[in-house]
Structure formats: C-alpha cells, structure tokens
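Aim 2 progress update. The chain analyzed this quarter is reproduced below.
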Amino acid sequence: MQEINDPTESLKQAFRRHASGVCVITLNDASGNPVGFTATSVTSLGSQPALASFNVARGASSWTALSTAEYVSIQMLNSDSLALAQKMSQDHTKRFLDDDWFRDEKTQVPIFKNVNAVLICKIRERHEVEMNAVIVVEILNGLLTEELPSLLYHQRGYVVPGERLS
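Predicted structure tokens:
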C-alpha cells in the first residue's frame, strides 16, 4: 500500500476510487426561481422516519437558496441522464433553460423528467461544518419512472454499472 501523509490528498485519492451514485438536488430560491446542482453525497439515514442527507459547499451558487429553503427534491440519475448531470454541474444560470422539467404540485420544487426516481423532501436540519454543510431531509413522498442503470461518478468521470457481481 502507498501511504499518503497529506489529509486533503488522502481524501481526494480515496474518494476517486469510491464510486458514488449521481443525483440532482433541486429547490426554489426566495423569489420562487428554480435552483439545482449535481450531488454525489446523498445517503439514506434510515427508514423510520424516512430521512436522507446530502452535503454542499457553502460557497456554491445554490447555498443562499438552500440555506433558507423549506423543500428540496432529490433526483436519482440514470444512464440516460448524463447530459442532465453535466448541465447541473456547470453554469448555474443555464440549468433550467430547457423544458425538461416541471414543478411538483404541492411543494413547487423543480423535477426533471429523465431520472430513475425522485424524493420530495422537507429540510429538517442544516449543519454548517467549516465551509460546508450537511443537510438532513425528511422524505414526504416519491416518484418512480422506468428503471435504467444508475449513473455513477468514479475516477472523476461518469460511468454506469457493468456486470452485476452478486
């Protein structure tokens, strides 16, 4: 094994070797405008009650809206969602220009059409840690579409699962 003594470099190198599911988080800003970003830090906290969490940099363009939002949606991306993942990780002013999304009737959060699943969530907690934040959400309801292979992020690029090992 190769030892890496720099903590930041250790973190970066280790997580490049760890594949993560790709999601898009969407919400509305204080004026009702859609806001969203790509996230690979989404995780389930448990099912009783149904809770999940995700992380975000407090310097991100979405942080101002996220710091006060009441609702968000977590959208799990699939093998046909690559363009969406790329769009949502680039220029924030161009993320909602296309007609590939709609609003949830109850919460009005933006929802993209080309995803595997959507969780509509209420923000329960925000934990600011250094220049980042952990957001804890309660799942209110979900939407499922045709299931396609999940989109993953691995070694600084997008991939889809290959052969199932078990």
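The chain has a mean pLDDT of 94. The two ends are 27 Å apart (CA to CA). These observations will guide the mutagenesis experiments scheduled for the next reporting period.
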